[in-house]
Amino acid sequence: MDTDNRSVSPSTLAAEKARLHEQGILLERWLADNENNLYPTREMKDRIALDLKTTYMHVNRWFANRRRKHSKRVKSTSQKQQADQAADAQNTGSPTDPEAAKALTTTRIVEEILHSFAKGW
């Protein structure tokens, strides 16, 4: 495709955009059909490129971008879960860290024992 957009007709740009969109849909379908395998082999990528009538580099970059997008989603989801757990811990008064929970339980037991002894004195 010509890099100077002024010399390319709007219909050519629209056709190219439609072709790339269709390729993206087909790549997404391939990904879903192959158990979300974000690491296809070189041979698989060559075959996909041939089927889509595009280059190996285009397919390779698409998978690299998809992995990057996936890792951002995982990181974002993980951070949200941690924030939710922290909020729950504040609301319930129990920490999410197992060591902190153990220390808190121990502290409560000691307080109960001391309270029992204080009653008996």
Automatic annotation (TrEMBL):
<dbReference type="GO" id="GO:0006355">
    <property type="term" value="P:regulation of DNA-templated transcription"/>
</dbReference>
<feature type="domain" description="Homeobox">
    <location>
        <begin position="27"/>
        <end position="73"/>
    </location>
</feature>
<keyword id="KW-0539">Nucleus</keyword>
<dbReference type="GO" id="GO:0003677">
    <property type="term" value="F:DNA binding"/>
</dbReference>
<dbReference type="InterPro" id="IPR009057">
    <property type="entry name" value="Homeodomain-like_sf"/>
</dbReference>
<keyword id="KW-0371">Homeobox</keyword>
<feature type="compositionally biased region" description="Low complexity">
    <location>
        <begin position="81"/>
        <end position="90"/>
    </location>
</feature>
<dbReference type="Pfam" id="PF05920">
    <property type="entry name" value="Homeobox_KN"/>
</dbReference>
<keyword id="KW-0238">DNA-binding</keyword>
<dbReference type="GO" id="GO:0005634">
    <property type="term" value="C:nucleus"/>
</dbReference>
<dbReference type="InterPro" id="IPR008422">
    <property type="entry name" value="KN_HD"/>
</dbReference>
<feature type="DNA-binding region" description="Homeobox">
    <location>
        <begin position="29"/>
        <end position="74"/>
    </location>
</feature>
<protein>
    <recommendedName>
        <fullName>Homeobox domain-containing protein</fullName>
    </recommendedName>
</protein>
<feature type="region of interest" description="Disordered">
    <location>
        <begin position="67"/>
        <end position="105"/>
    </location>
</feature>
<dbReference type="InterPro" id="IPR001356">
    <property type="entry name" value="HD"/>
</dbReference>
